[in-house]
Specification:
About 40% of the residues lie in helices and about 20% in strands. With about 130 residues, it is of the alpha/beta class. Bound molecules: manganese (II) ion.
Length: about 130
Amino acid sequence: MNGKAVLLIEDNEQNRYLVTFLLEQHGYTVVPAADGLRGIEAAQTFVPDLILLDIQLPRMDGYAVARALRKNDALHGTPIIAVTSYAMPGDREKALEAGCSGYIEKPINPETFVAELEQALSQAGEDLS
Ligand code: MN
């Protein structure tokens, strides 16, 4: 159990449910947001230890959300891990340019998701363990 708070910005309800379940199993606390605006709002009311950001979001895509989150001084040191589609290789570079710290590829593999997340964090120079 690590007690770290994750802000999960994901529009797909099944993915939100799956990722929340996997993270809670590993002791994370998850605050879900179904779109970018709600995620940005949530990050104004609490400072998460980590933000998981879907890139394909309605209205405001993940790149725009990452740029907006990075304008919030309170989130200066907060890792933002993008969740990108395997079919869209350019997503990763664009996510890093937009201020993300690392990325995980979709589809989400329940067997490896948390390990992938922790690897992405350590590659980004973060160690949440
Ligand atoms: Mn999506």
